[in-house]
């Protein structure tokens, strides 16, 4: 029962931090320093990634009408006026081409060097430094953009070049935990002129193939030989992450319509400093 309670806590943290630009992986690593799951190192390495599947499901449900490329009822850009093509949403297929292009840099690096980066950087101090660096980046970028009109104010306006550039920023998060996948893509999108709302929405869409791919990679490496307790821990964590994500995504989309991202920057800096201090005092390793 204690391990299930811990799984619930991990699910809550995942559901909150996956979508806010404050680094879910970073928080999961830091939480593991405080609340240790009584599982093998191999299982935990898989768990902290695969738990994200619950968060993905929340995105799929909330944005279903914007990401499902088939159907005639709400088809504003059909492939053709009649026949099978009338059921194909051409604009959504283009969106998915953009998303897949954005995912290529991180996918290539993740497949080739995932284990190396995990060994080098998945530790509290590197996470803390990444939290601070990108916290400062959020504040600087928001100050630079103050009073300026965004060049891209709709997801449909994102070009292939813009999609690729956002993917290059996502690559930073694939290498350095604590950067935040959503944080890196949002900062990158803001720098190249994408509005806050569009940057956040596109980041949610990017999460679907990225997390599915990362989870599949981890499951293949771990295998399907779960104990009953391991399966329960993973399932509970995913369900809790899904429920929390449903609320957090809706909150963030409402919040950024009236506010900027600087509050998340200051939070990242404060948390990073606390972690560095704890490391210096030997409280964490």
UniProtKB/TrEMBL annotation:
Compartment(s): Cell membrane
Miscellaneous: Bacitracin is thought to be involved in the inhibition of peptidoglycan synthesis by sequestering undecaprenyl diphosphate, thereby reducing the pool of lipid carrier available.
Gene Ontology CC terms, in alphabetical order: plasma membrane
Keywords: Antibiotic resistance, Cell membrane, Cell shape, Cell wall biogenesis/degradation, Hydrolase, Membrane, Peptidoglycan synthesis, Transmembrane, Transmembrane helix
Protein name listed in UniProt: Undecaprenyl-diphosphatase
Pfam families for the chain: BacA
Protein species of origin: Pseudobutyrivibrio ruminis
Gene: uppP
A GO BP entry: cell wall organization
Function per UniProt: Catalyzes the dephosphorylation of undecaprenyl diphosphate (UPP). Confers resistance to bacitracin.
